[in-house]
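Researcher: Here's the sequence for the chain we discussed earlier.
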Amino acid sequence: MKTVLTAILVLFISISTYGQVDRSNFRAGLNAGIVVGDFADFSSFSIGVDIVHHWGISREIDLGFATGFSNAFGEDQTVTVPDITLNVEVDDIQFVPMAGSIRIYPSKGFKVGGDLGYAIGINSGNGGGLYYRPVLGVDVNGVTELNISYFNVSDDINYSSLLFGLLFLF
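Model: Thanks. This is the structure I predict for it:
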């Protein structure tokens, strides 16, 4: 699985450097959101850093790569079984995604796209997994992007969060 995802990433990067329209952009920023799905009982809030580099292959399409860091804060849980109450400390859940990325511009300033690759699990016991992240974004003033995205990592179970992000164009 890791080999296939690495091949996809290399393909995206190779395609993005061939036949470029004179447009290249590097964006970096922050995201924050709520944890949903399988991990919602163990964490409710996530923050992260996004780093994205795209090359224009046409007026409407950019291809590139995306990475960053995501941290979902673990919440302590109380488990009660007959006559026994235990407090369980849940560790933070952390990922570093490595992905190919595409953005499509149906109109000026508005974009839709996604990232696909592998998210490396950083915290103990976290093996990572297949990473995908659909994104909707709006350029605010030519140097700032606001976006909403769904961050998902799947292996045996799914980690997912709904994120709001702020990126700066460099």
